[in-house]
């Protein structure tokens, strides 16, 4: 009994401190990434950067409903899902929506860089901002349609022991789909496999890009974005892959009657989910660490563009006040 309490306490502290750190770091990462990508025309006109921008935006929103709710439930014992039937149905839909869009954007960014760095002109034309916008609309609609069944599958059931509502999957077929296909395949294995495959192909293209007659600015931008995407893939593979194995373990041993084993499995599951949320919090820090050009662009955006604008606004306000007085 004491061992189970220790497992529970340690996991609770990890969720609170690591989770809150991830939440703050993730919000900062998302906002700073958006600041750079939206401030520079170079990125606004590039389809790969467009995908990364949308991914950062979605990841930022996901942190509130996904991670913050998880911290409240497993860290502070405040379960909003059990308190509100609306939130019980809305959160799974929203989390699935953000997850699918986020990983789809990362996959599309990787595929886009493969096309952008390809030697065939016909394939290079597939890397364009207009097509990227159409694909984003298709992905968003597909993610919405995919999430609709979860709205009808989740619900409240009264616990006979506590007398309180529990938010669970009430549809047996959807439960099997969720745990046997969505979590191990759509949420991890499939996107990671696509990213690794096209990441390797894009890397091979970049190795040969120096021998082609391509404008220097475009060549450097393609190399920069490919490097950023490749390191992001490596990072995602590290933080996402463990969830696949944890899901397999939970599927096999999840219904055990051994209370100590159940506590250990629950601890592993919680730690795996926290590790999984690193995907939503690390983009900006990855880009800053691996790309010297991105660091320079970030400093340029921060100091030259926005600080200069603030100074101009201050000067204009002072002039208006002087003229008025």
TrEMBL record:
Transmembrane regions listed in the UniProt entry: 14-38, 50-73, 93-111, 131-157, 177-204, 225-253, 265-288
Domain of life per record: Eukaryota
Signal sequence, start to end: none
Location in or out of the cell: Membrane
Keyword Transit peptide: no
Any one of the GO CC terms: plasma membrane
Keyword Membrane: yes
Membrane topology: Multi-pass membrane protein
Domain G-protein coupled receptors family 1 profile stretches: 29-287
Molecular-function annotations in GO: G protein-coupled receptor activity
Pfam name, any one: 7tm_1
Keywords for this protein: G-protein coupled receptor, Membrane, Receptor, Transducer, Transmembrane, Transmembrane helix
Record protein name field: G-protein coupled receptors family 1 profile domain-containing protein
